[in-house]
Amino acid sequence: PQLANQIAAGEVVERPASVIKELVENSLDAGATRVDIEIEKGGSKLIKIHDNGSGIPKDELALALSRHATSKLSTLDDLDAILSFGFRGEALASISSVSRLTLTSRTEEQSEAWQAYAEGSDMAVKVIPAAHPVGSTVEAVDLFFNTPARRRFLKSDKTEFTHIDEWLKRIALVRSEIHFTLKNNGKTVRNYRPAKTSDQYLQRLAQISGKKFAQQAIEINCEHDDLKLSGYIQSPYFESPASDTQYFYVNGRLVRDRLVNHAVRQAFAEHVTGAQASYVLMLDLDPHQVDVNVHPAKHEVRFHQSRYIHDYILQVLQSALAQVGQ
Ligand code: ADP
Ligand code: MG
């Protein structure tokens, strides 16, 4: 299974940031409210994810490290949702096949914790006693140590850090109720405290997108039929330098979509010239009204009623901007 896992790893695990994405998504799936990320040397030396989620029962630990061992596929109806989020039950096995990985976990029901790791050419999984609070820690050491071509493909530690940091921003903006920390080479460099009120969210926004944007941002909060658009956009009076704060989420997933971009740009067209306006927006709609698995890596989506969605976004933003303009 080692080779098969490594081939699968080529698809799941491109670089440290993609390892972290898979592991943190697992933590969130497990209901964690706090996720601590630790990396060394851009993640190539160490990636460690600690969460306070449900944990994994001892007798499921070994299974979690083997391929296609997802606990998340229970009904055929789930299949849609699972495919779109890339849940294929192979992230842990893949990462384990290209690093020295340990998975340590404890559930509420267990009085002691257990640690699993795969060893040898057959990747036989060993399970040994460990100390750990309720939740899980995944530690991946020496990423790509056994796949030198991939390891050479890694960029500088600083570049890999930037990818990780950018990914963390994306998730922190939309999963604002989660406490995230990031430690880089022994130093805590990000601490996103749980944001449950608008004020707390604006603090997180300030950390991520700068004080200037957070101070003058206009709150969007509009529900219409089964559509909901919420978040923050920049004020029409705000002279913004070129900004990289353009985040649009559909049902919690970041998208880069032409239709969405067009609607947002058009809303700002009479207010902001030159530089692109800043925004962090979340669109929530019936999952049956959108295909999010068009291309997982490109963040594209396909709305079933695309014209309707386009005009909805446009109108909500236009009227918000007009109100400020009065
Ligand atoms: P998938 O997420 O697609 O199910 P993974 O390989 O990412 O597959 O994980 C395999 C299984 O291991 C999951 O289905 C889940 O049951 C368990 N698991 C992984 N990480 C965690 C975690 N942090 N907390 C609880 N369970 C986890
Ligand atoms: Mg997973």
From TrEMBL:
It comes from the Bacteria. The keyword Cytoplasm does not apply. GO terms for molecular function: endonuclease activity. Residues 205-322 form the DNA mismatch repair protein S5 domain. The chain holds residues 8 to 333 of 629 of the full protein. This is DNA mismatch repair protein MutL. This protein is involved in the repair of mismatches in DNA. It is required for dam-dependent methyl-directed DNA mismatch repair. May act as a 'molecular matchmaker', a protein that promotes the formation of a stable complex between two or more DNA-binding proteins in an ATP-dependent manner without itself being part of a final effector complex. Belongs to the DNA mismatch repair MutL/HexB family. Keywords: DNA damage, DNA repair, Endonuclease, Hydrolase, Nuclease.
